């Protein structure tokens, strides 16, 4: 299984992951927030029936810019991102992040 060699967090622009195979993936805040893997966000995306979610904030109506508040490791398989809109239930597995790599 591929694992990150390093994870660089920029709270106002996103993540940059260097994988152990030396590939590099950059994830924007919009991409990470709109593709949150939690059940609530998955359901909201399914309701929209679109491959590219149009909602910038899921769920709710958050008026400000959504930024990363914090990032923490979940075991050795994922990260958990807390957002400034109060959402923090998404656990982004490394496998999922690799699939999202732009």
Structure, explained:
The chain has helices at residues 29-34, 39-48, 94-100; strands at 4-10, 14-19, 24-28, 68-74, 78-83, 91-93. With 102 residues, it is of the alpha+beta class. It has one domain (4-100): NE0471 N-terminal domain-like. The longest helix is centred in the middle third of the chain and has 10 residues, at 39-48. It starts with a strand and ends with a helix. The relative contact order is 0.22.
Unreliable stretches (pLDDT < 50, length at least 5) are none
- State the secondary-structure class: alpha+beta
Strand order of the largest sheet: 1-2-3
Which CATH top level class fits? Alpha Beta
Distance between the termini: 19 Å
Q: What value does the Rg take, in angstroms? A: 13 Å
Q: Quickly count the domains.
A: 1
Essential attributes:
globular; three-stranded antiparallel β-sheet; 102 residues; NE0471 N-terminal domain-like; alpha+beta; 3 helices
